[in-house]
Amino acid sequence: MDGDLPEAFYEPLGGGRFASTPATAGPWSPSLQHAGPVAGLMGRAFERTDPVPGTRVARVTVEILSPVPVAELEVTARVVRPGRRIALLEGEMTHEGRPVVRATAWRIAAAPAEVPETVHAPAAPPLPATGRPFTTSQMHADGYLSAMEWRLVEGSFFEPGPGTTWARARVPLVAGETDSPLVRALTLADSASGVGSQLDLAKWMIINTDLTVALHRDPVGEWLCMGASLSVSPHGSALCEATLSDGHGEFGRVLQTLIVDEQPTP
Questions:
Q1: How many angstroms separate the CA atoms of 112 and 221, rounded?
Q2: Within a domain: residue 121?
Q3: How confident is the model over 80-89, as pLDDT tens digits?
Q4: For a 10 Å CB count at each end of the chain, is N or C smaller?
Q5: Residue 67: which domain range?
Q6: CB-based burial label for 129 (10 Å; 0-12, 13-18, 19+)
Q7: Where is the Acyl-CoA thioesterase-like C-terminal domain (predicted)?
C-alpha cells in the first residue's frame, strides 16, 4: 500500500458518518480495523462536542465491544456531566445501527502557566534516521501498519520483547483535515500491545478489550515515541503499559487490558 495510500483513514459523509478506507485495516484482517484510527475518531468527536475555551481532553477510554469492520460508521458524542472546569463526555460508534465501540473522556481546565513542570520519565531516545520495513507474512501489513511511518528503536512488532518506536501517520485521520495533537496520540496509542508484546504472536493471540490514554500535556510535532511492555500471567490475562513522548519529553501514558489465548490451528 505504501505507494498507493488512501487520502486519509476516513472519508467524511456528513451527519457524523464516515467511510472507512483500507488504511484503517488492522494486522489480523483486511476487513477489520485497527483500533488506533477508531480511537482517534472518538477523540476527534470529543474535541468537537460543546468545546469550552481554556479546557483540554486529558483522558480518553475506549471500550471495544466487537471488531470494527472496514465499512461505514457513525459516531456520536455528548456531555453527560457539564462543567466550566470539569466535564465528562461519552461517545458511541455504530455500524449499521449496532454499537461497536463506546468511549468516555474527561475534559478539564488547563493548568496555569505558572505551575512548575514535573516529569519523572526519562527522555525519549533519539529519532532514528531511517525505519525498518515489515517483512512478515503473519500479518496484514497493507493497512494501518503501512499508513503509519515507523522507526523502531528496539524490539519489533513480530518478535517477543518490550519495544520502543517513533511513529507518525502518513495520512490524516479524516480527509481534508489536520490532525489535532490528541488525535495523533490516540491514533498511535493502540499499537502499544504490538510494540511491547513479550509473547510470540505466531503462537499466542492477544486482543485488547479497551484502551485508556491519559495525557498531562498535549504532544508537540508529528513524530511521537512510544515505549511499551506487556505483563501476562497463567490463568490470568495481560496488561500492556506504554509511555508516550515527543521531542520535549514524556507527555502521557497508555493502558490496555488484553485476553490471551492460543492462536487457532489453521
A1: 22
A2: no
A3: 999 999 999 9
A4: C
A5: 2-111+126-262
A6: exposed
A7: 135-260
Q: Please tell me which residue, 159 or 246, carries the higher pLDDT value.
A: 246
Q: Answer yes or no: are the C-beta atoms of 189 and 33 closer than 8 Å.
A: no
Dump the DSSP string for 166-211.
EEEESS-SBTT-PPPHHHHHHHHHTTHHHHH--S-TTTEEEEESEE
39-75: pLDDT as tens digits: 999 999 999 999 999 999 999 999 999 999 999 999 9
- Comparison of pLDDT for 219 and 205, the residue scoring more: 219
Percent of the chain with pLDDT over 70: 94
How many folded domains does the chain comprise? 1
Strand, coil or helix: 39: helix
- Under a CB-based contact definition with an 8 Å cutoff, are residues 151 and 167 in contact? yes
Rounded to whole angstroms, how far apart are CA atoms 251 and 69? 31
Q: What is the dihedral of CA 4, 6, 7, 8, to 10 degrees?
A: -140
Inter-residue long-range contacts of 116-122, CB under 8 Å, 24+ positions, other chains counted: 119/249, 119/250, 120/250, 121/243, 121/245, 121/249, 121/250, 122/250
Q: What is the pTM of this model?
A: 0.94
